[in-house]
Each structure stands twice: as structure tokens, then as C-alpha cells.
Write a structure and sequence with these properties.
The protein has helices at 122-125, 178-184, and strands at residues 6-7, 14-19, 25-31, 46-55, 60-63, 71-72, 79-81, 94-99, 106-117, 128-132, 139-142, 152-160, 164-174. The protein has 196 residues and is mostly beta strands.
């Protein structure tokens, strides 16, 4: 039985999720409402879940549908994206899975979403990200305070601090794509154009 849900807010933005030695996989789910009534000028929004990762050995990169960089759960980066919901019609949304058996190898993970196709309209998308750790309560981050001119949103920052995984709500809207997110969080990645 799961304990009650934890909702991260501006006033209470951080929670500890897991400690070293924990096994299992944490699922991170993005769900949103399909644009209706002309919100997206007649088309559904294609909102994508992704993450930047940095491991303790210095390796870093991105897990995302763009460029078919879906990751790997059992080999570095120990993060896997399960698919690409192009419309918001899939009731399960999009999911990242993190292998917590390798928690000690992580340094930081930035969960973000970006609008691949469709007019930016975060208000109508009404997005929510939910983290489902193997034990303990689920953790919810709502994509509120929308900036409808922005194409991307940094949602949550996961850090390994003394072999304890903490998650901090970010919900920072960024004008630009992955390269701008990388710059904002000093990830130091070089980017090239990619396609689905």
C-alpha cells in the first residue's frame, strides 16, 4: 500500500526519494491534456518528456525521443524512455525509468519537457509529472505558472547527495530547446539538429 502523494510546490520544493542500497526502478510519468477547441490551432500538441544526466564518472548526455536517444536501463546511463506519445491521447503518457540499483553512479538528472510540434501553449496542455519510486509516496510536480512563449520547461532536478536521491521542483520555462536548457543548468553538452 502506497503512502499519500507528495506534491512539490514553490514553498515546499524538495523531497528525498531513495537511499543507496535500494533496488527497483523508479518511473517518471508525463501526462497532459490534448489541445481542443483551437488551443493548438487545430492540431494536437506533441509534448516530449526527456532528461539530461550526469554520472559520477563524468559521462553525461540526454535521454529523449529526438534522435532516438531512448537510453538503457541496464547499462549506462541506467535511464530508459519507453516511447513517444505524439498527441497526448495515450492515457499512460510518456515514461522515463531510472534503475535505482545504480543510484551510486548518478550525480544529477534534470527532468524536462519540450514542445516538439504545435504552438507553445502550456496553459492548455495542463501538464503534470509524477515520480513513482519503488517504495514511499508518489511525488507530483504540476507544470503551473505557464509561460506560453517558451518551448521548454525544466521540471525537476534529481541529485545524489551522500548516496541519497533528492528531487527538487524547478518548473522553469525556457525560451529555446535542449541546448538552452543545457546552458541554463551548465551541463556543457554540444548539440546538433536531430529528428524523430
Amino acid at each position: 500500500m502506497r503512502l499519500q502523494k507528495v506534491v512539490l510546490t514553490k514553498s515546499s520544493p524538495t523531497v528525498s526519494l531513495a537511499k543507496s542500497g535500494q533496488t527497483g526502478t523508479m518511473r517518471i510519468n508525463l501526462n497532459w491534456t490534448r489541445g481542443r477547441g483551437g488551443f493548438f490551432r487545430g492540431g494536437a500538441i506533441d509534448l516530449d518528456l526527456a532528461c539530461l544526466y550526469q554520472l559520477k564518472d563524468g559521462s553525461k548526455g540526454v535521454v529523449q525521443a529526438l534522435g532516438k536517444s531512448f537510453g538503457n536501463l541496464h547499462h549506462p546511463p541506467y535511464i530508459h524512455l519507453d516511447g513517444d506519445d505524439r498527441s497526448g491521447n495515450n492515457t499512460t503518457g510518456e515514461n522515463l525509468h531510472i534503475n535505482l540499483a545504480h543510484l551510486g553512479e548518478f550525480k544529477r538528472i534534470l527532468i524536462f519537457a519540450y514542445i516538439y510540434d504545435g504552438a507553445p501553449n502550456w496553459s492548455a496542455a495542463d501538464g503534470v509529472v509524477t515520480l513513482y519510486p519503488p517504495t514511499g509516496p508518489e511525488v507530483e510536480v504540476r507544470l503551473d505558472s505557464p509561460d506560453n512563449r517558451a518551448r521548454s520547461c525544466a521540471i525537476a532536478l534529481l541529485k545524489n547527495e551522500k548516496n541519497e536521491l533528492t528531487v527538487t521542483r524547478e518548473v522553469k520555462y525556457i525560451h529555446g530547446t535542449q541546448s538552452e536548457i543545457s546552458k541554463a543548468y551548465r551541463w556543457g553538452l554540444r548539440w546538433t539538429a536531430g529528428r524523430k
